[in-house]
Write the structure tokens for this entry.
Amino acid sequence: MRRIVSMLSALMLMVSSAAAAEGPSCAVIQFDDDTRYDQVKTADALSELVMERLTNSDEFNLSVFAPIDADLGSVSIQNQAQGYEKMKKAMVDGNFDEVFEEVGDESKARSMATAQVGQCIDREITSKLGRDNDAEYLIHGTIVNLGVGSWMKEDYSAMSRAINMASTFTGMPSAAGSMNASGIGSLASFNVKKTGIGVQCDVRVIKASTGEIVWLKRFTGVGTQKMLETALGQFGRDKLNDALRTKALEQAADKIVKTMTSDLKAQKLF
């Protein structure tokens, strides 16, 4: 009985949230991972986090309350494969009519991962997803970077500046290296080691009826940690772990929904 009441309460919350939101109906499509770490299922986790925040915001007219299991990334790869088959056949037959029937047409995206605003992906697939889920627009993301790399530099630079500024006010050594605090002795010598994991994701809004990309932005989330090395020992952690990945995903999801909400209110989203 308690379980039934809980389910009814959740259903009422969903209905009230949908009623409160204005604007066109939309649905979240399961995100794709375009990195070599796709087996980690990071895309699934980020989809869920974005879905959760969109629902809690009460700003979006969501037609469904869970990410739709539709692998748009795989679909785009299949479409490319079909194109390759047409090309192979043309090479054998010497007839390129079918291959170049849309020569010069840049409106079709080559893949989901490279689709830009104004380009279209498979209309038959997006329109069917829209009809099946009562959604006018589809929200989809592609993870383009995961782990560590130069693309995280901006986040690390900001963190380093904050640490160094704090060091200036407290008289502590900066994060750039080790030094002795005057008058305290060698035990005050220490080094701050920073490590982290980042996730970078392209998020698109797709008009279901046409397959057109109408909104696209890139977001980066970084989970960081610090380890203090002193003559007395080490404090903190420097090993990369799943907790850092989770922090990065949560930060990315926060940025995604915050920006989408801002653009929705400014009528820049749909």
About this structure: The chain has one domain: 24-71+118-265. The CA atoms of residues 223 and 248 lie 4 Å apart. The helical segments are 2-20, 42-57, 72-93, 123-132, 153-170, 242-265.
